[in-house]
Amino acid sequence: MAKITLKNLRHSYYPNPKDPADFALKEINLDWQDGGAYALLGPSGCGKSTLLNIVSGLLAPSDGQILFDDQDVTDLPPDARNIAQVFQFPVIYDTMTVYDNLAFPLRNRGINETEVSTRVTEIAQMLDVNDMLQTRAANLSPDNKQKISMGRGLVRDDVNVVMFDEPLTVIDPHLKWKLRSKLKELHQRVKATMIYVTHDQIEALTFADQVVVMQEGEVVQIGTPVELFERPAHTFVGHFIGSPGMNVLPCELRADAVYLNDTKIEIEGPATTTNAQTYEIGVRPEFVTIADTGLAATVHKVADIGRHSIVEALIGEVKVSAMVQGDTPQKGDQIYLNFQQNQTRLYGDGWLCSTAKGAK
């Protein structure tokens, strides 16, 4: 296991990059602590897999350093970094038994058979595949194949980091929650440093202690699942995380007051100094309520999603979603909306620029 540090890391697939747009990864600086559970979260094409491949040694960065426990490994090949990687599609040998698949990484390193047996049995118990050890891998279901692929990474005790690249993509939806739970359990038991790459917010937020949110090659926020939900540092984070995502509403800043369609909006606290060109209000649907007075709006549509309904309304031409329990209005109804002040934030050019009252 290792602490992983990325210093001034950049990467371009062009031989002679000339400006920031040429870089698939902009400058990245971050630390992953020894034994932590981390996720790289973002849409397809944001640079997640590129970053993972650089850390693993499959790709050399254009600039910057990768440190394992403060040792520079930037120029080391993958086999010298002691990394286990689990891919979208299970990497196992179909002609081998489950036991032999799990034993292979150990035998390949000359580990004696007594220790091999001990480690394989221990990992098989963690994965709940004890009764499959003599089964040929070709006869396993897709989720069990992925379990074995995970086990091949966890069976070694010299691994610095285990990296998962969209490991549940090909798994049936009804089985994903089982594997997510199993993976979280495995991390808590083996205490290995784990990095999980995904575009699925549920997978990231249920697995990781810290989530790195990426957009267009940049890290826009690093935080716990709670921090990302409650206080997005960027409107992209607010929109990307949550179902539905945060309302992002165009507004005006006039003499330090915020206005939406000429109505003053009370936000969480004062705006920090900014020279932004555009301003927006961010408020999650959970903190928008229907009341007797407030912002006049017209119901555009209502979606019943079980425990609550999502009411989408128009304030002028601006769409606002509210999460409502109990009785709901109908399409075309005139209603009034209120925003919970301490959850209503101001963003300038996409970045959070309001300060919560009491914060320093």
UniProtKB/TrEMBL annotation:
Gene3D superfamilies: 2.40.50.100, Nucleic acid-binding proteins (2.40.50.140), P-loop containing nucleotide triphosphate hydrolases (3.40.50.300)
InterPro entries in the record: AAA+_ATPase, ABC_transporter-like_ATP-bd, ABC_transpr_FbpC, ABC_transpr_MalK/UgpC-like, Mo/tungstate-bd_C_term_dom, NA-bd_OB-fold, OB_MalK-like, P-loop_NTPase
Coiled-coil zones: none
Molecular function per GO: ATP binding
Family per record: Belongs to the ABC transporter superfamily.
PANTHER family, alphabetized: ABC TRANSPORTER ATP-BINDING PROTEIN, MALTODEXTRIN IMPORT ATP-BINDING PROTEIN MSMX
Protein name as it appears in the record: ABC transporter ATP-binding protein
Source organism of this protein record: Amylibacter marinus
Phylogenetic placement of the source organism: Bacteria, Pseudomonadati, Pseudomonadota, Alphaproteobacteria, Rhodobacterales
